[in-house]
Amino acid sequence: MPEVVKEINSLLKTLEREDYSIIIDYIKLVSQNRKKQRALETIAAMNEFHSVLGKDTGWKNEEEMLKDMAEFRKSRMEKA
């Protein structure tokens, strides 16, 4: 990273005052694009996570939950 800082500082020395606003705008654009990309990647990861969890059964009581779990175990044992 120090090499990058040296290079940027060297380049900045050659610029005029009005060039700085253009550079700042470009850096903001790149930063926003990176944030958007990370947000999209996060959304995709969350969607994948939710698809792994499966459907939300919304059990009404503990008996329904236990019945559903028993059926799930039974189906998994039949596949094995």
Set down the secondary structure blueprint.
Blueprint: H1 2-12, H2 17-53, H3 62-79
List keywords for this structure.
single chain, 80 residues, mainly alpha, 82% helix, 0% strand
Provide structural commentary:
It is built from three helices and no strands. Helices cover 82% and strands 0% of the residues. The chain starts with a helix and ends with a helix. It is an all-alpha fold and 80 residues long.
- Order of secondary-structure elements: HHH
Low-confidence stretches: none
Residues in helices, as a percent range:
over 70%
Quote the average pLDDT: 87
The class by helix and strand makeup works out as mainly alpha
- Main pleated sheet: none
Number of helices: 3
What's the gist of this structure?
The chain is mainly alpha-helical and 80 residues long. It is built from 3 helices and no strands. The two termini are 52 Å apart.
